[in-house]
Write a structure and sequence with these properties.
The protein is an alpha/beta fold. The chain has 13 helices and 18 strands. It folds into two domains: 207 residues, Medium-chain alcohol dehydrogenases, catalytic domain (Quinone Oxidoreductase, Chain A, domain 1), CATH 3.90.180; 136 residues, Rossmann fold (3-Layer(aba) Sandwich), CATH 3.40.50.
Amino acid sequence: MKTLGAVLRSSGKPRPYAVSRPLEVIELDLDPPGRREVLVELRAAGICHSDLSVIDGSRERPTPMVLGHEAAGIVVETGPDVTHLRRGDHVVAVFVPACRACGPCGVGRPALCEAGNRANGEGTLLSGVRRLREGREPIHHHCGISGFAQFAVVAENSLVRIDSSVPLDIAALFGCAVLTGVGAVMNSARVTPGQHVAIIGLGGVGMAAVLGARTAGAESITAIDTLPHKLKQASELGATATVSADTHDAIARVREATRGGVDVAFDMSGSVRALEMAWQMTRRGGKTVSCGLPDSRHLLSLSPAQLVAEERVLQGSYLGGGDPALDIPRYVDWYREERLPVASLISARLPLGRINEGMDALATGSALRQIIVFP
C-alpha cells in the first residue's frame, strides 16, 4: 500500500529547518504486516527531542529513515500469529519493542531488551526487516515505529491497547512523554509522599515528571529551566517552586530551600551540565535520576568518594523504568480519573506538512509538546 511519510535522508542540516527542510514528506510503499506484526493507521504523533537528536546528528541512526516514535492510532490489519490485538483496537506505540525472551525481558526490564535495542540501532522492526520502501530503496524505521507517517507496520510487542474513549492526539503522549517522565518518578525514583524533588529540563518529559511528582505526593517540586515561560507553566502544573538554571546560585538556592538538598533530583534535559546540577542538588543519601540522552561522546565527571561517603545513588531511567504493557494502561486510567492532566502538555497540533516548522519550535524551546495530527 501507499503512505505519506516524513523521510530524513541525512543528519546535520542547519537550522532553521523550515528553510533547510531535513524532513521530506513523500509517498512511500509500505509492505503488509508479517508474522507478529500489525498495520496501524496513525492518527497522532508527538514531536520529541529524540527525533530532533537524529536530525541534528547527536544521535546516530541509519538513513534514509522515517522519524517519529511517540504515536497512537487504530489497528487496521494483523499479520500471522498476532495474539493480543485485533482490527479496530486503539493503540499506543512503545519506542523499544520487547522480545519477551531475552535476559532483561525475563526479569521484567523490557526497556533493556537486547533484540529491541539492536533493532532500533539498525533501523529495523523487531524481526530485523524493513517494511518501508521508496521504490526499491528500503527506508529505515525509527524505534520500530516511524510515527511521522499515515500508516505504519510495527511489531505486535511495540503496541499497547488502550481504552478507545481517550482522544488519540492525547493518547500519543503516553508512548514517550508520559511513559518516560511519570515512569521515572514512579518506577525509577519511587517518589513517596513527603519527599522533596527537583526536575531539571522542562520539555514534555520534564513536565510529565512534574505531574508525576504531584501525583506521587511529593512535598515540594522545584522546577528548573532556562526559559521563563516553561517555569511559569511548571508552576501551573503543580511545581511548588521554580529556579532559573541560568541563575549563578541555582544549586545553592535549591539546597538551602530543602535544608541540604532534595531527596530526588531528575535530569530531563539530555545535557551533562544539567546532570551535574542535579547531582549537586541531591542530599546525602539521596538519588539522582537521569532520563536525558546527551550526545554519547559527552562524559560525566563526579567524585567516587562522595558517591560512597554520602551513600548516593546515580541512576539512569529508560522507558520509564518499568513495563509499558502495565504502566501505560495505569497512566491512562489516572488521566481518565483526572489525576494526570496530560492534555495540558500539548502546545500545538500541526499537519504533517509543517513538521520542519515543528522541529524549529522544539529546538528553540518555544513549544512544549507538538502533535502531528492526521486527518
